[in-house]
Amino acid sequence: MNESIRTAAISPLRQRLIDDMNMRRFSRETHRNYLRDVGRFATFLGRSPDTATAEDLRRFQIEQRDAGVPTPTMNSIVSALRFFFTQTIDRPDLARKLIRTPHPRNLPVVLSRDEVARLLNATTCLKHQAALSVAYGAGMRVAEVAALKVSDIDSERMLIRVERGKGGRYRNAILPADLLILLREWWKIGHQQGVMHAQGWLFPGQQVTKPISTRQLHRVVVEAARAAEITKRVGPHTLRHSFATHLLEDGVDIRVIQALLGHSHLNTTALYTKVATRTVRAVISPLDRLGIVTADQERPAG
């Protein structure tokens, strides 16, 4: 948990929420988002959120909608408040009053293999190339990449331990052979520079006692994409999308991809079937099997 949050004077209720998230090993980003969103509701109420009523929740969600808050943001607030009411103050009856707003998911932006290679080669230093290679080569979220420690790399089993995944879930990600070579090269240089230690962060930030920030990794991707003359709108998650799509196009079973990505639901992974163009092109239409069209066939136009 962020040290500034620990040291600040906080209420017992806020501390209880923090403790509940810590028990479930939520990521730093989830900590920050949940505290912000519960605080937003408290500001709306003008009093402690544990005194809220069902009518308060109804008015709050109507106010959010009328203010034009984007649907994804509203749903994120619902997730934070559901956790608060269910886990922190044991009021599941209030959690049931929160309404998630359905919204169509946009198809993810996916890079071609050539574009991925160009982007990785356009990074300005080995640390950045190694970090982005983990995002693509292991299909990891940007927060997961930033939170990796040197000890999370298991070269004997060729796995990367993800202990700070979304929702605090643990999983194993793959460790490709070429990625291991790159990480060993980064370890050698980082160790010589005194920024890497056996029990330290795999990608230290400007202060070696802290990991690289997700914001910095986002800037690295954007700058590398610009240098590689990639016109698509990309971010760190684009590399994860590309990892999943390329595996699907290579014929990897979708349930295996689900496990590698750490998705709870298969329908989340199934989204990539809509952007796996090589898979679509490999399908033979039943029309082609009829043989009704020949190259030399001539017939009137109308």
UniProtKB/TrEMBL annotation:
Domain Tyr recombinase, chain residue ranges per copy: 106-285
Domain Core-binding (CB): 8-89
Keywords noted in UniProt: DNA integration, DNA recombination, DNA-binding, Plasmid
Gene Ontology MF term list: DNA binding
Keyword Transferase on entry: no
Pfam family, one: Phage_integrase
Biological process according to GO: DNA integration; DNA recombination
SUPFAM superfamilies: DNA breaking-rejoining enzymes
InterPro entries assigned to the protein according to its UniProt record, in alphabetical order: CB, DNA_brk_join_enz, Integrase-like_cat_sf, Integrase_catalytic, Integrase_recombinase_N, Integrase_SAM-like_N, Tyrosine_recombinase_XerCD
UniProt similarity note: Belongs to the 'phage' integrase family.
Protein name: Phage integrase family protein
Lineage: Bacteria, Pseudomonadati, Pseudomonadota, Alphaproteobacteria, Acetobacterales
